Amino acid sequence: MSAIHYREIDGQSAGFWGLAALLAVLMAAGLTAAYFMAHIGHIITGMTNQVVWGVPHVFAVFLIVAASGALNTASIASVFGKVAYKPLARLSGLLAIALLLGGLAILVLDLGRPDRLGIAMTHYNFRSIFAWNIFLYTGFVAVTGWYLWVMMERRLNRYTRMVGTAAFLWRLILTTGTGSIFGFLVARQPYDEAIMAPMFIGMSFSFGLAIFILVLMAVFKGTGRSLGDEILMRLKNLLGVFAAAVLYFLLAFHITKLYEAEFRGAEAFLLWDGGIYTFLFWFGAVFLGGALPMLLFWLPQTRRSRAAVGWGSASVVVGGLALMYDIIIGGQAWPLSIFPGMHVSSSFYDGVVNFYAPSLPECALALGGCALALFITLFALKLLPFLPETLADEEA
Amino acid sequence: MSQPPGPMLKAAKTRRGRGAAQEGQSNEEHPVPGRAEQGIDEVRRRFVGAAAVSALVLAPGVSLFAYAEAGGNRAAGASSKRRWGLLIDTTRCKPSCTACVSACSSYNGWKNEGRPTDAQWIRKVQVSDPKTGFSRSVPVMCQHCGNAPCVEVCPTGASFRRADGIVLVDRHICIGCRFCMMACPYKARSFISENLTDQKPWAPRGKGTVEGCTLCVPRVDAGKIPACVEACSREGGGAMTFGDLKDPGSAIRRALAEHPSVQLRADLMLDTGVHYQGL
Amino acid sequence: MRDRPVILGVLALLLVILAAPFWHGALAQTHGASPAVPPAKGAHCVRPVAWMIKNHMKLLMQLRYEAVHEGIRHRQESLPGCMNCHVSRLPDGKYPSVTSKKFFCNACHDYVGVRIDCFSCHTNRPDAAYPAAEEVSGSVSVAHRVKRDGGSALERAGAAGDPP
Q1: Which of A109, A173, A179, A209 lies in disulfide reach of A34, CB 3.0 to 4.6 Å?
Q2: Same domain membership, residue C127 and residue C89
Q3: Which domains does chain B have, with CATH numbers?
Q4: Rounded CA separation B253/B245 (Å)
């Protein structure tokens, strides 16, 4: 393989500045929403005492999960020694940091008291998986930043494998922590399953790689650099496997739940008669997130198509968001079982399926976080040489 | 509302450099009422500030202040020798009665206006078994668990359990993440979604933080019983008993020893401080 | 190198802006304006006034920890105790609002530009009934023995003047 030459993107075109302006507008909208949420209160969101986490959390957890998955490509190159992926490693690390910061920004700005971020950084309860996640997230940014440094500084290149391994292990632990936020919730029947941790790892592989492919294709198209079929087809095959892995985890998760009588009510709701949540699971998570991309990637008619790679990746992203909505909101819509087997009613919505409708401010905040992730990526690409000048197929 | 100047000035003087030993002595001169019950909690709280010129809070619980009125004005404090609990005899609880809910609401200053964002520290849940027709009306509030999930998941430690078993939110360090609300099996916590005014002086509550039943902790600390229990015995069926679960002679312990009782979601082994009979 | 004056100029401007708290304070002092602190009701504070001006926040932090975590509630030494003594009705019969300059805490806090958020949760109105005027007395463990047949038979001690 010939030497790789990395170069910044020019960032002079109208398209670049147009995109930057669009992202800036979205970020400003998100910040405005956060301001109003902090000053007026969460009353302006759709979140209630029944559904306490809403759309901001759907996007935040999605971005954080995707962040660790975006690092896959770098890990494959440095940890598993696949040289074909090496030119992509820097973008992979950059995207991981950017997505994580976007997700964290949403989480922080959604807090009831975002002004108390300092307290979150100084008061720790180490029995809390949330407290551990604060370290896992900030540590991930640090380790991945270090990883980028040793990759980009020629004299430090020999440490790439070592630091890359550290980053890989860190991201596995990070996603275990994120999945455990839900897996540890014994109180709620739709959660409370250890498999949620590995399931989130599977989801991160899939969502992160899908976003990576989309960004890669967009940047190469936008800058007129050449992106060979070979590398793209490798990535797409990998994404197909990851999407299948998510389907496998979902199958194992729900089969386990269905086997236990305690969880059957919640399962019937999520999988059969839960309205939007049932639709999001089957059409969103299963079809868009798994079946459709696998068909696009591997059917003889589309398996060599670059457009199919793009559409398939986009489908994984949309399906992933649907799955996250299904897990986070659907899981809260199902009422707590305080008196198992009994019919219950109260003034506090006991025993009824909880209603949730996202409001404009919380959606603006969620999109603002996504815009932040892309904005960071965009300007980092302009400032530092993250991308190779060409990824054209080798003419050996 | 005024206070004699003596002890105040004396405290100021000790801060200017009298030794720790002397200060310890002066504590002895003014024993705290009920001190024998306090044990190590009290020792921990003793004056530490040997040569401190200006007073400082080093860390929560480590105090550099001498209390001016150490002799006369401090209540006993939470002690791990007690565990406060509730026993609710559902056979005495009338479905139509909401005395406990109204009393809690008016004492603590929360209002349920029927919106899903309204806080509810206590609620009446109508429970019926569709297979047998058995039905009960059950007040549900924070169960003050021994192994409280809200305490375990709270990232900052704002959700905590006092030495005497009362589970509270320290709203000074609550960041409003709502993880405790996700973790609570009893839906006992509420999040404040809007600005509040005219809170009760003894029940501070405000936007962006999470709250729940405090077992009327200011009343308990003053030697009174929670507002719901009082209201239930006055206007309701006398279904609620409050007391020390660690005291074998207390009414609550005797009732628990005599008749079967259950904890809600006992399968979770949370060791709740609230027990129910007749369920 | 031709940029040097520009860079130095911007840096100097930045320094001036960053130092705003200092020169703002200095300016305020030269104007001679001192905060108009509303008078308190009591004869004297729970600590010497000079000490309180410097250290009230430390005292409040400790009282807060003791009250919330350890259940040690002091009679007058508490935020409600402060309100009872330091907040009075205005000539129009109303209590000053939390944002008003006439509210005791704001008199100085506005002056020095230190924002406090105590009163997003705590009320800033006095309440004669709280904190308790009477001493809490008796053994608490005895106080809490309540008979199951409830009602008038509640055995409790130390009730007078306690939180309502």
Answers
A1: A109
A2: yes
A3: 5-63 (no CATH), 84-277 (3.30.70.20)
A4: 6
Q: Which domain holds residue C147?
A: 137-164
Question: Are C66 and C20 found together in one domain?
Answer: no
C53/C66 same-domain check: yes
Say yes or no: C3 and C79 in one domain.
no
Q: What pLDDT is recorded for position C20?
A: 83
How many domains would you assign to chain C?
Answer: 3
Q: Do C142 and C108 belong together in one domain?
A: no
Distance from CA of B135 to the nearest CA of C (A): 23
- CA B258, CA B247: separation in Å to the nearest integer? 15
B262 interface with A at CB cutoff 8 Å: no
Same domain, C53 and C96: yes
Q: Do B224 and C163 lie within an 8 Å CB cutoff?
A: yes
- For residue B198, count other CB atoms closer than 10 A to its CB: 8
The complex's ipTM works out to 0.94
Give all strands (DSSP E) within chain C, no chain letters: none
User: Please, what are the averages of pLDDT over each run of 10 residues along chain A (396 residues)?
Assistant: 81 93 98 97 97 98 98 94 93 98 97 94 93 95 97 93 96 96 95 96 98 96 92 96 98 96 94 96 98 97 95 98 98 96 96 97 98 97 93 73
Burial class (CB in 10 A: 0-12, 13-18, 19+), C36: exposed
Distance, CA of C108 to CA of A153 (rounded, Å): 54
Alpha-carbon distance B182 to nearest alpha carbon in chain C (angstroms): 23
- Show residues of chain A in contact with B195, CB under 8 Å: 40-41
- In contact, B193 and A111? CB cutoff 8 Å: no
Q: How close C13 gets to chain B, by Cα (Å)?
A: 36
The residues with which B191 forms a beta bridge, in sequence order, are B210
Instruction: Say yes or no: C72 and C107 in one domain.
Output: yes
Q: Are residues C5 and C69 in the same domain?
A: no
Q: Inspect the interface and report whether the beta carbons of A350 and B120 lie closer than 8 Å.
A: no
Are B182 and A188 within 8 A, CB to CB?
yes
The identity of residue C65, as a single letter, is Y
